[in-house]
Amino acid sequence: MVHTLQFLAAAMPFLSIVIPAWNEEKRLPPALGLLEAFRRELLWESEVIVVVEQSSDATLDLANAFASTHPGFEIIGSSLHRGKGHAVRIGMQRARGDFLFYMDADLSVPLKEIGPFLDYFQAHSEVAILVGNRAHAASRITRRQAWLRRTMGRLFNRILQKTRLASLHDTQCGFKAFRREAARAIFARQKLDGFAFDVEVLLLGERLGYTIADLPVEWLNSPDSKVHIFRDSIRMLRDLRRMTR
Fold it and tell me: Per residue in 160-180, is it b (16+ CB within 10 Å) or e — as a string?
């Protein structure tokens, strides 16, 4: 019996980290090294799931090579490029932890922010979803986005406020955390594949009755963002229209 319980404890991680990746051969390898160093410092079991959408570079090969020598890393290769929402959904449905995070491949929000998020979950049992808020007065913006990207982001969030689709001030920060029950319920229903999927996730959380809170984070903007400012903004507005309906 003791051996069985020990096996189950090792098989079920406390923390799951999901990373979507597409054409990330430059940014992903350093991030994987940081993730491995972070995991070695933990006192409990964890897993990292990297979902690589069909890429034109060596992202998948590099990810597989790393995972082959680092237990606790799982690589899921997709034969399609459908969008970040699709990649995150696959990873979150595969994750097994008590607490599930998804974050960007460039680790724009440093891994050290995971600790305060877990502490907040432990201190607030009513909260099921935590969102990084770059607009929070206590956030540390180490490297800012370009003026146009910041302006478009603020405009997008104002549209959300007016349409009452979401009550939070920074829906697009790529650093979010969930209790396992909430993640299971939300990502079983989540459908959008594009960048507006973050709004859908939070909207589903609200509609399902889960309490959502946001926390300040440190933010280091990457100049190699995969977001196309005009094309993806149009797609996000189209998806918002779908959600409004």
Answer: beeeebbebbbbbbbbbbbbb
* 210, two tokens: 């889960």
- Give yes or no for a contact between 98 and 11, defined as CB atoms under 8 angstroms apart: no
> Where does 2-244 sit in CATH, by number?
3.90.550.10
* 180-218 tens-digit pLDDT: 999 999 999 999 998 789 989 998 999 999 999 999 999
The reported pTM is: 0.82
| 71: number of Cβ within 10 Å | 9
Which residue type, as a one-letter code, is found at position 30?
P
Q: How many CA atoms lie within 13 A of 120 on its CB side?
A: 21
DSSP E strands: which ranges in 55-98? 73-77
H/E run at residue 6? helix 2-11
